[in-house]
């Protein structure tokens, strides 16, 4: 059985690809071959190098290939999905689309969420709205198709050895270690609503069991399936667990949502649309479709594995100094904590920090073009 990963070395997909190989699938990866992700390429994979966004070149490198399942991790809007489907047209039996549990338009009094009862169409976050539009398009496209079928996978908050499950981390996914760097330096991290928000945190290894179990699973034909943890924890409990893992007190500063949005405006839709809302799931459907699915990785063990992996690969410990500057501005302005400017060796990183912490510097740097392309 052959599966094509569009992606396959990313934070969410790498454990899925690894498990698929372990389960004796012929695993093909369509990837651009970025140097940051080479660490997660298994020698057993069939590598196909190309960019799915360049449809003509992607069609060229895939010429002659057919697969049982194609799984798409990197279509984030309808145009990207249509492009991907055009590239793999006629090459699969099952198309798996990785959506998000953020599509649910739920009321917290109606928890837990169920695929067959909870409405979808959350328009409070552009990301979730775009994923919802993709889901609608797939349902319409495959409605009269008796040969091929789709399966929609809706992950909630997933984490693994390169993903930190706290809501306030840099948007640059390669630089999430910035959050841990603050903790190691003893600098406060922001927390909102006392950390009481309830989330479902699922380790990527558990997520992988659910996803691989859906490969060529006729019972999942044209169905949406969320894959989440049966147990929900608060973000305060997450920080307490992380504190136990690292053996170091985590300093945090209580900041209101509105104050966060003034310094980190990109967080407003994310918090209001998803990560600032309590959530719990009924996982009956995934357990019915994939009986071996369970939450086997505890939060403590998952976070411990994350720290161990970063320490083993210090080249992954990248810092977003611009984000650091904005968070220092946030906490020093609204948290009542005096934060000294850190010592930064690289001049460009120092400028990024200053641009984040001091709006006038950021504006001047932008006008001068000093941060262009960085």
Average pLDDT, all residues:
94
- State the helicity in percent bands: 25-40%
User: What distance lies between the first and last C-alpha atoms, to the nearest angstrom?
Assistant: 43 Å
Secondary structure class reads: alpha/beta
Number of helices: 14
What sequence of helices (H) and strands (E) makes up the elements? EHEEHEHEHEEHEEEHEEHEHHHHHHH
Low-pLDDT segments: none
Total beta-strand segments: 13
Strand content: 5-15%
* Rg calc: 21 Å
Q: What would you give as the CATH superfamily of the domain at 2-173 and 200-233 and 278-316?
A: NAD(P)-binding Rossmann-like Domain
Just name the CATH architecture of the domain at 2-173 and 200-233 and 278-316.
Answer: 3-Layer(aba) Sandwich
Briefly, what CATH class of the domain at 2-173 and 200-233 and 278-316? Alpha Beta
Q: What does this 3D model show about the protein?
A:
- Helix 2 (55-61) packs parallel to helix 3 (78-87), helix 8 (257-263) crosses helix 12 and helix 12 (321-334) packs parallel to helix 13.
- Helix content is 38%, strand content 14%.
- A seven-stranded parallel beta sheet has the order 3-2-1-4-5-6-11, with helices on both faces. A two-stranded parallel sheet has the order 7-10.
- The chain has a domain at 2-173 and 200-233 and 278-316: Rossmann fold, CATH 3.40.50.720.
- With 374 residues, it is an alpha/beta fold.
- The radius of gyration is 21 Å and the shape is globular.
